[in-house]
Each structure stands twice: as structure tokens, then as C-alpha cells.
């Protein structure tokens, strides 16, 4: 039995992503301030860097952290900054007064008061220092401890500064002491130090003495005042988005990200966004999670997007990949689409792909005209700049143009011993057609006698290769259960969309079965080629039907190119 072959354009063309975050030659603009956030315990608080606009007026530096099983008993620190670029903001309600953005957030109770917290925003040892400003602080709550384990990150220190000038500056935390008590330990127990003498303390296994959540312990700088919901995101040009196109009746784009470009990152996913100015209902905004795959000797995350309508091959999607690294979202963005993928392929050395490229573009253009979707700018308009391949599959194309009425054989199957024929079947044939949409499907309609009870019923769909109008090898078989039955115009129907690009003249047989898998309907046969033959010989077709015929003929031409490509 032959394998079902989907034609995969395995030449990955887009080896360079398009970054939306390129910086011009004058990287340091008059309105931009780069804030580097560092600490003396980078294992706990990783270095980060952010750019803010001076027009925002303020920037907040926050050191987030989370300890799932420990309460903090005490801490002592010095936070330093450069007076040339930053000034501590002492406005009411920012860092002081109502305590909504108090420096040591973990010391707050619900009323906004503090317990055992001392902060000096202008200590004597730095008052006369015109270069470096400092904030010294300590907190102690040996009786109850500070709750740092609410199953989410907490802001250990958060300070809002006024921005003074453009350039680049650093805010640095020197964490001197940080002691904890396990949630199940008695209140009289001695603290377990995570930091002591400005050093991170480790246990006998060389792990931090107090476990903390890596993705909830990090640093961030962002415009404005304290935002407890803020999650930093930084562009990362090392995360490149590649793509491939799977050719079948239903187009699928797969986006790839090399696994080693996400080293140390978790939870990768992509978003696919498209905004259509003509019809907002056609907008696309999807989130897709990936799976690990290996191609050759390279490991990737693969994200499969199955939402490409044939008439929408020219859409350009904004594809963004996201991944979490130490609580900071890393991302990169690229512009992807079927049109750019195919036209990019015309520059590839392997010209054997050209016929299927051209026929796919013609198929998309016919669908555009039929659907009225950007019909004035069809996707095949750019074919004037590619080689002439009109004679490559001329015989097969001529055959399609010469389909006769005898090539139409949709309907009930008789004279085939594999399928039972009933004089009075319990379920009767209600029609078959092709449905165009996000997927292209064969819809099989049927009518159930006097009862609407479909419990236990199912439809067997058998797809055979076509041997001069007779079924040959079984290519695929599916059982569609009653919970997947659909209804329209008082009829039930099922959809079958598993055909591949080179199988457009395959024969598909539909049979309704009862709960014991016994046939209760006559079997119906259908194929894409048969549907085209039927349409072509419709008397006096309307303009809409004529456009539909063009689409279906283009499908067959495209399918024959696929057969030629894989040598069937």
C-alpha cells in the first residue's frame, strides 16, 4: 500500500527573520535613556537592560522574586544610582506617603503600613557624593516573617526615579543580608540565610540555601510608576523564525524555531496576526503552542498554522515567537506568508519546483476572484518575472479542459461487491459537494428515515487511488462518529478533508453504519475531478458558477503538478 504523501516544500527559504526592532545608526537618541539593572547576586536577580523615553518622565526599577516555601525574616541592602541621569522621586503616592509603591514591597500589609522597615533615601555616607546616589534599607520581622510565597512573584525592592537626561545608566543592588524561615518551622527558629555578607549562600549540594522560583526572580526597568502586573519583554534577534509550506487541499504553514536558540527558556509559543482593512471579520489573531521535532540533525520547535484559505495566499502574517527566560519574555517577530514563500522559491536553484509554484499561485488567484477577496490584485500577478513553464504538464492540463459528462460519477455505487446495495435503505443519500473555507472539504449529506436518533451511528469514509475510474489501493479510511455529525437544510452531513494535493482524482466512498458497524445506507462515490466535470457541463452556468469552475479546474491543475513533482 502506498504511503499518503503530502508535498512538503522542504527548502526552508526564510533563514533570516525580519526584526521590527532595528535601531538606527544614532542608537542613543536625544529622548532615550537605557537603564541597566544589576545586583551582586546575579543568580537571584539577573542583569537586565531597558530603554525608556525621557518624555515618560519616570522610570521604575524593580527586583522581583518568589520563594515558594519560605517567609523572609530580615534583609539589608544598598541600592545605588547615578545622579546625572536619575533622581529619586519623592512625590506623594509614588515611593512614599501612601506606601502604594513602598521600596520593600514584601513588608506591606493590606492597609499599606509597614512593619519593621527602615529606609534612608539620602544616607550620610552619600549626601556629598555628586556622582552616586544611594538608598539604604533594612527590614526585620522575626515574629511572623514577611510573606514572599503567594505562589507568584513579589517585588522585593521597587523604586521610581525621575529621568534627567538621555544616555545610559546603571542601578545596582548590593544585597547584604537576606534571611528566611521555612513555612513549617517554629517561630523561634534561627533564619536560613540566602544572602549573608553580600554573598549567596549555598547548601552542601551547591544549591541556593533557600530555593526560589527562577522565572519569578529577576530585575526590570520600565517607564512610569510601580506596576505589579508588569512582565518585561525584550526583543531577541537570536530567535529566528523559519517556515515551510505543506501542499494539500488545505494549505498549512509550519513555523520553526531552532531549539538551541531557546536555551534556558521555557513555554515557547507563537502568535499569528493579520489585520484586513477591507473586512475586520477576516482578521487573524491566533496563539499556537509548539512541539519538538528533529529535521536532519537539528532540533526545532514546530508551530503548525492550518488557517490558510486558498484565496488568502497573499496575506502577510505577523508571526511573533515568545519564550520565558528567568521571568523575562524574550521575543522576535517576522513577516511570513504563502506568497512571499513561493515567490522566494523562484530564486532557488531547483527549478523542478517551478510548475507547482505557478499552479498554486493560479489556484489562489482563481479563488480570490471567486470569493471577491482582493480580486483586483491576484496573487499570480507577479508571474511575469518568473520563467515560462507553461509546457511542463501541458498534457494533464489539456485533459482537464476536455473533461466530459461521462467523467462525472458522483452518486450511489452499484455493481461493486465491496459495498451492499439496499432497495430501501434506512438512511438515504442527500448529496455531496466541495466546501471552500479555512479547509477544503468534501461534504456528504444524508437523510435519516422517520427518526432523528443518531446515537451510535457513524460514517465510514474510504479513500482509494483511481485506476481509470475504478478503485485501486486503499489510501485512507476514517470513521466519523455521530458526535461529529453536522446539520444543514434538515439534512445531516459529515466533512472529509484528509486529501492531499496529488490525490484530486482519488475516489472517496461514504457509507453510513449503525452502532454494530453494519451498513444502513447505500454507498456514495465522489472525487474532486468528478465534481469539476459536473460543474463544467452545467447548462448556462451563472458568472458565480463559472468562477467556481475556474477554481476547481485550477485545483486539478495544481494537483497534477503535485503528482508530477512526486513522480506518481
Q: What does this entry look like structurally?
A:
The chain is mainly beta and 568 residues long. The chain is built from six helices and 31 strands. A hairpin with a 2-residue loop joins strand 26 and strand 27. The longest helix is centred in the last third of the chain and has 24 residues, at 543-566. The chain is elongated, with a radius of gyration of 33 Å. Residues 1-28, 98-102 and 108-112 have low confidence and may be disordered.
In DSSP terms, counting alpha (H) and pi (I) runs of 4 or more, how many helices?
6
**Uncertain spans:** 1-28, 98-102, 108-112
Give the helix/strand class.
mainly beta
What is the overall pLDDT average? 84
The coarse overall form would be elongated
Share of helical residues:
10-25%
* Total number of strands: 31
First-to-last CA distance = 14 Å
Radius of gyration: 33 Å
Main beta sheet strand tally, sense and closure: 8 strands, mixed
Oligomeric category: single chain
Q: Provide the β-strand percentage band.
A: 35-45%
